[in-house]
Amino acid sequence: MAQTVKINVTVNGEQVEREVEPRLLLSDFIRHDLGLTGTHVGCEHGLCGACTILMDGEAVRSCTIFAVQADGHELQTVESLGTPDNLHPIQQAFIEKHALQCGFCTPGFLMTLVDYLGDNPNPTEEEIREAIDGNFCRCTGYFNIIEAVKLAAEKMASH
Amino acid sequence: MAGKYVHQSILRLEDPELITARVQFLDDIKLPDMLHAAFKRSDYAHARIKSIDVSEARKLPGVIGVYTAEDFGDYVKPGPLQVPPPTAIKGATYVARTTMPIAKDKVRYAGEPVAIVIAESRYIAEDACDLIYVDYEPLEAVVDLEKALQPGSPLVHEDLPSNEAGHVRQERGSWEQAVKEADLVIKRKFFINRNAGAALENRGIIVQWDKHAKQMTIWCGTQSVIALRNQTAARLGLFESQVRVITPNMGGGFGPKINTSLPDDALITYLAMKLERPIKWVEDRRENFLATTSERDQVHYCEIAVKRDGTIVGLKDFFYHNSGAYNPYMMTVPLNSQSHTVTNYRVPNFLTEFYMVFTNQMIVTPVRGAGRQYGVFVMERMLDAAARELGMSPVEIRRKNLLPANAYPYYTNIIGQDFVEGVLDSGDYPSAFEKTLELIEYDRFVNEVQPKLRAQGKKVGIGVACFSEGTGVGPYEGARVTVGGNGKVVASTGYTSQGQAHYTTFAQIVADQLGVDVKDVKIITGDTGYFGWGAGTFASRGITVAGTATYMAAQKVRQKALKLASKILEAPEEELELADGVVRVADIPSKFIALGDLANLANPMRGTMEPGTEPGLEAVAYYGPPYGATGAGCMAIILEVDPETMQVSMEKMAMVHDCGTPVNPMVVDGQIHGGIQMGIGDAFYEELIYDENGQLLTASFMDYLFPQATDMPKKLVLGHMETPSPLNPLGIKGVGEAGAIPVPSAFAQAVENALQDTGVEFDRDTLSPSRIFTYVQMAKGA
C-alpha cells in the first residue's frame, strides 16, 4: 500500500476527513473517493475547464491540483448548486437558453460563472466571452451560453 | 408539419436532471470489485516488435495481469469491417485491413496498444505501463499520401503490393466533352487537414461478466450499441441475447465513438470474462488524440471547365484520401467528399476519382461533417478560382450556376456512402443563397462599408459559400412505443444519444400522436435491453430515421387505442380523439377512457384474444428510407484580418439552412451552433500535425487549438427555410453536421477578400495566423 496522508476538507459545507495518496488528483478525490461525480474530467491537463470547482470561493481546475493541496480548504462542487425543483439562477438560465447539449462541460461552466458573476454581476458581452474563454464546449458553439450568462445576471440581480 | 408539440421550441426535458448532476456518465459508474485497465502504447509509428518484457510490471503490487498479443493467442486477429464494402459502385476496388485488437509483431501507428494492464486502480495500472519494456526495430514511417503510393515506399501492410487501400472512379456526363465545350479550364491543388472529434468526454467502457447467469453487461459511450453488442457476441461465441450494451449519458460523440472492435472493447470484454471481475477503462485526452480515430487528410487535384460567362460545363476532381493504419470504416469519408462536391450546382459533366492510402497514422473514420465539407470546400474554392480568372464576383458565379428551385428530385448519378445513387429529394438553393446575402447585407458591405474601412487601412473581407448535407440515410432504425398502466408512454430505440435532445424531440413526436403531455413520454435510447435493432448514430440521421420510426410506432399504438376504445365506448373510431391522456368521443368529452386503463384492458387476463390482434398498447415500427434526405443552405462571413499578426476576427456570420420540418426549432439552432464551432476549428486552428516520423505533434489541448468563446463570430444571424422532405411523413431532414460544413469555404474566401491587395490565394483549410502570414509572404514573392 502506498504511503497516505490525512487531509481535512470542507466539501459543500460538510467536513470530510480522508487518507489519500499524495499523488491523488483533487478531481479524482472528489469524483471517486467522495462520489461527487458532477465534476467532470475532460483533459487532465488544465485546459478544458470541465473539472472547475470553487476552492475558498475561487474557481480552480481540480485536475491540476493534488487532493493534499486542498487540505484545510473549503470546496464547492456543482452538487452545491440547485436541485431539479429548486434550480440555481444560472442553471435555470442555461435551461431556458438551451445552453447545454451533452451537458458534460456544463458543471465547469456553472462553477466558473458562480465565481465570476459573484464578482461581476453585470458583465458586457465581451466580458462574458473572456470569462468563459477557459471552458471548452463542443456542442453549443458558446452562443447560447453567452445568452444564458446575460439572463443569469438578470435573474441574480432581481433576486 | 406542425402539431401541439412538433415544430415547437419546448425546453429540453432532460435538462433539469442533467444540469444538477443527477445523471450518470460512464466514468461515474462504480461496480463492486471493479478493476481498471491501462494501455501500453507504441512510441513509434512504424516498427517491428522484437520483444516485450512485462516481468517487472507483473510484480507490481495491485497488478492483476499484464497481457500482450502472445497472451491472447488466436483471439488476436483483425476485427470485422464496420461498414460493408462498396459493391454497389461499379469498378470500385478495395483491400480491407481492419483494426488489430493489439499489435502483434509490428506497430503501425504511434499510440497503437502493445500491452494492456489490469490492476486494482487506474493509478497502479499506469505505473505498471511504465515498467513494460518494449524492444522495437524502427521502420521508415509512411506519412505523405502521395509518396506512399510511389514504388519503393515502405509498406504499412507488408502482405500487400502497395499502400493503396481502395479506388473509386465515378463519372456523370463526360469530362472529355466538357473540356471540348469549355472556354477555359482552370486547375488547382488543395490540401485538406486532419481534425479530431474532440468530444469533451473521452471514450470509455465498463464490462461485467456474470458467470452464473452467463450474461455480459457493457456500459459504453458508443454511438452504436447494436454493432458493439453483435461484434462482441460474435467474437466471444455468445448469443446476442447474452450481451446487453447500455450507453450511459454521453459527453458528445461527433463520430469517433461510432467505432467498435477497437482494442479497448475487444480486449476488455475478453478479460472481464477471463478474470470474472468488472473492468473499467476510460481514455485520457492524450490517448484520445493519439489512438482513437480522427478524420481526413486529403490531397485534391481539381479542374473546372467554364464558359466565358461563368457557366460551369464540367468538373474533374482527383484525390488521395488518408485511411490511416487500418481501414475498418471503409470508404465512408471519401465517398462523402465525392458525393458532396457538386451537389449545389448544375455541373453537367463531373468526373471524380480517389485513391485511399494506408499510412502510419491514426485510423480515419468520420468526424462531424464526415468528408462532406471537403467536397464542398473543393467546389467552392474552384468557383472562387474561376471567378478570379473570369473577373466575376463570387456571388455572380454562384448565382449563375446554382441548381434551380424546380430541379428536385435531382438525380446526381453519383453513389454515396449509403451505396445508393444520390438523389436531392427537395430544396431551394437559390432562395437560401439570396436570403444569406440579405442577412449579411452583402451589397451594402461591398459597396459602402468595405470601401470606407479599407480607406482607414482596415483589412476587412466577406465570403459566401453554399453547401448541402446528405442526411438521414438508411439502412433503417426502429422504435417501440408502449403505453403503461400509469397512462404514461415509453418509447425505446436502438439509436444512441450524445446530447442532441432526443429525449425531448422524440417525445414531442410521440406526444402529438397519442395526445399525452410531452412530459409523460419517456424516451430510452442506446440500450439493447430495451431495443435490439438498429444501425447507429451517424450521418445526421437521428430525428429523420429513428424519429420517423418512433412516429410510425406511435401511430400504430394510436390505431390500436382507437380500435379498442371504440369497442369500450361504443362509438365509431372516426368519432374518437386522443387528447389529455384519454381517448374520448370528440363531441361528448365526458365519454372517455384513460389511456392507462385502456393499456390494462389491452392485456386481457381471461377469455380469448381476438385473432389478428396483439396485446398491449404497444407497437414496433421500422423505417428505412430509399435514399437520404438532403439538407442544404448557405453561409456568409464578414471578418477582419490584423495585418500585423494575421489574427482573424469574425465580425458577423449569417447562415441560412433548410432541414425541412424542424421538430424543435430551438434544438435545430443549437445543432447549427455546435457545427459552426467545429467548422471554425477546421477553418482556422484545429490541426492534427504529424511529423515525417509519424509522430503526432499536437497531442494535447496546449497544441491542438480548440475554438473558445472568444474565437466565435461577434454576431451570428440564422435564417430558416422549410422545404419538407417528401421521404418521411413529418418532412424532416437532418441538421447535425450542417454548421460544420460551409465554414472553411466561406472563411477562406473572406480572408482572401480581406487581403485582396496582396493577391493571396489559399489552397487549403486551417488558415491559422501563421499560415496566413506564410501565404501572404509567398504571394508577395518573398
Structure, described:
The complex is a heterodimer of chains A (159) and B (782). Chain A is an alpha+beta fold. Chain A has helices at 26-33, 89-96, 106-119, 125-131, 143-157, and strands at residues 5-11, 14-20, 52-55, 58-61, 74-76. Chain A is built from 5 helices and 5 strands. In chain A, strand 1 and strand 2 form a beta hairpin. In chain A, helix 2 (89-96) packs across helix 5 (143-157). Chain B is globular, with a radius of gyration of 27 Å. Chain B has 782 residues and is an alpha+beta fold.
Indicate the topology.
The complex is a heterodimer of chains A (159) and B (782).
Chain A: E1 5-11, E2 14-20, H1 26-33, E3 52-55, E4 58-61, E5 74-76, H2 89-96, H3 106-119, H4 125-131, H5 143-157
Parallel strand pairs in A: 1-5
Antiparallel strand pairs in A: 1-2, 3-4, 3-5
Helix pairs in contact in A: 2-5
Chain B: H1 15-19, E1 35-41, E2 47-53, H2 55-59, E3 63-68, H3 69-72, E4 93-94, E5 106-107, E6 113-119, H4 122-130, E7 133-138, H5 145-148, E8 164-172, H6 175-181, E9 184-192, E10 204-210, E11 215-220, H7 225-236, E12 243-246, H8 263-275, E13 279-282, H9 285-291, E14 298-306, E15 312-324, H10 332-339, E16 349-358, H11 372-390, H12 394-401, E17 410-415, E18 421-424, H13 429-440, H14 442-455, E19 459-471, E20 477-483, E21 489-493, H15 502-514, E22 521-525, H16 542-569, E23 576-579, E24 582-585, E25 588-594, H17 595-601, E26 618-623, E27 629-641, E28 648-658, H18 665-684, E29 715-721, H19 743-754, H20 769-779
Parallel strand pairs in B: 1-13, 11-12, 15-16, 21-22, 28-29
Antiparallel strand pairs in B: 1-6, 2-5, 2-7, 3-6, 4-8, 8-16, 9-14, 10-11, 10-13, 14-15, 17-18, 19-27, 20-21, 20-26, 23-24, 24-25, 27-28
Helix pairs in contact in B: 7-8, 10-11, 11-12, 11-19, 15-16, 18-19
